[in-house]
Amino acid sequence: MTMEIVGIWLGALLTLALYSFLYRDNPFYKFTEHLFVGMSAGYWVIYNIYNVLIPNLWDRLVGTGDAAPDMMMIIPAVLGLFMLARLVPKGAGLSRISLAMIVGTGAGLSLVTTFRTNCLSQVEGTIIALTGAGTGQFLSNLILVVGVVCGLVYFFFSKPHRGVIGGAANTGITVLMVAFGASFGYTVMARISLLIGQVQFLLFEWLPTIPIFRGLTG
Amino acid sequence: MGRLLERLDKVDRRVIYILMAASVIVPLALKLDFPIPIGSGPSMDLYMAIDTLPPGSTVIISFDYDPSTKAELQPMAVALTRHLFGHGVRVIGMAMWPQGASLGQQAMAQAADSLGAEQYEDWVNLGYTVGAGVSLLRMGSSIEAVYPQDRDGVPYDSIPLMRDVRRLGDVDLAISLSAGDPGIHSWVMMAKDTYGVPVGGGCTAVSAPEFYTYLGTGQLVGLLGGLRGAADYETILRERIPGAPGGLATPGMAAQSISHLVIMGFIVIGNVAFIAGRSKRKGGAK
Amino acid sequence: MRLFVPLFMTFICGMIIILQFFVPHRPFSTLGERLTDWYMIVASAAIFLGAVNLLQVHSARIRFRQKNWQYSPVVIGGFLVMMAAGFGWGVADGRPFDWMFQTMVVPMGATMFSLLAFFVASAAFRAFRSSNWRATLLLVSAFIVMLGRVPIGDVIWRLIPGAAASSHPNLVNEIAEWIMQVPNMAGQRAVMIGASLGVVATSLRMIFGIERSYLGGSD
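Above: the input entities. Below: the structure tokens describing the complete assembly.
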């Protein structure tokens, strides 16, 4: 038996153990679920060490090749240790400093980039000519502009949704319902795609390793 | 009829599960095949964006996903890398999700082996970076600052492909295969809107609807949405490039079709049973 | 005073990042570069924090014989085996770490999330009720998209006499694409603009120290 076939069987048995949950919760499912959590965490830590900490911290601290040691890297190393201080009850204060750095940097970046990409560019993309491209395009552009404006009115809660504002909010929620319907359709599609992937694995990779099913191939 | 609807309303969930499983297994086992129509659309836009790149251009593919969405995004990764290598474009792989680094390596190595692309000359996998948008911001001034070495520990300066690619602005196109955040949002915000690099995307079907907004504004040059997007791309490749192999997504579209019909059937039956039950309750109340 | 240092840190880091967008020259550009270099290290420490926390939780479960404690050694064992394989042989292709990832972690991750297909089917049967006209609109939109995004929608459409020879042989696909590009885009854009204003407001509150809940309390 080659390692490839051992691997396929291992994957198939773990897959079937997880699917056994569909019948009812059972020890095989629980075992596999816990194994998944443990191995995933191990993967994250190892990649973090090899892909981030060694090249971006350790090598710069000690200086590799022609590069001189960068002593400034002691600061993030200490801040990283502060982050771990959270594990000790009295160290929570230190971990706040590291957390503040993460939050501050993230907030500064989000403030500029989210405002520019998700607000200004979207507003700009909605300022479009309604006429000049035929009736169909006119109607589509009109629905787009009215939909965005009315959708925003629906999210505006500082004024009661009555009168003109109420009418606009009603139009907005109608457009949002169509959008949520599309999202639902796509969500169904996504979930089924994941099942298709695993069924393909079982049908076309695992079953052909069993002699009587050898004819099945992708 | 009333009794049937009542029984339907109380049907065991495992019956639903069996029908669901059958709707996927049977079309796959029978190898049902439905033609996939290809017209203009986000998938074709992404194909054109890549196909119009001059040979020798450099593209970054960010594998921002993990095994949970592999079924949707790995077929895209395989099809895109095949197209890029076949077109003579150099590929830099990276990942903002740790497990994407391994999945990306698998896709790139597979395509490179079959098309004769050389690692470090034609492609490289830089690996995982933590920090999402912050890392991309830094890559705008120096990719080496984020990736002093590739996934396998080869120093940046020793990689021939990276000699003339010093910062994000030096690449001709960035593609994010995104299962969520960090993913396409970060790439559009940083690569496109900050450094002016065209960005294309592939995403799970769950997140595809929200990215249509970026397509409308031109912030994304094209988008593959879910397994259908991957199947679209495979079909375009087969139609336009003689001898292009079949992909992983297209054979799944028949199962996808039948299972959509089954889900729609569930919704209709569930609603009929609900309406019948409501009328009965109203009748009883009178 | 207890919160002064972290609040000051948040303010300084936030302002450095903002200013380097507006003044992309020294000193802000170099300060911004330094900060992003450091950010990656500190953010990676958060991953260690998560891993150590996971081990702590499961060790405590074993020690106090809490519910399902028998499975906690599996978590710890899986973690240690991956760590040992990574440290012992590295992460390159074909090594034990990569082999275990491809043959165990990948199928487990993929299967875990594919279970959602069954739950969506069950929810479609039991919970998706067309209780008013707006819910019906949502349902109709979902049906068109579900039919239009798969080939069978147009296969069914072309069964109607004359449809295959018409100028729109892929009508269901075209309608689905129109829904995605017009009403869907309008709705998603409204949500995106609204949410982005929320992000801007929250970011400002954090940078200026008004929002402090992330520091573990409002005091």
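Note for the figure: The first strand of chain B starts at residue 58 and ends at 64.
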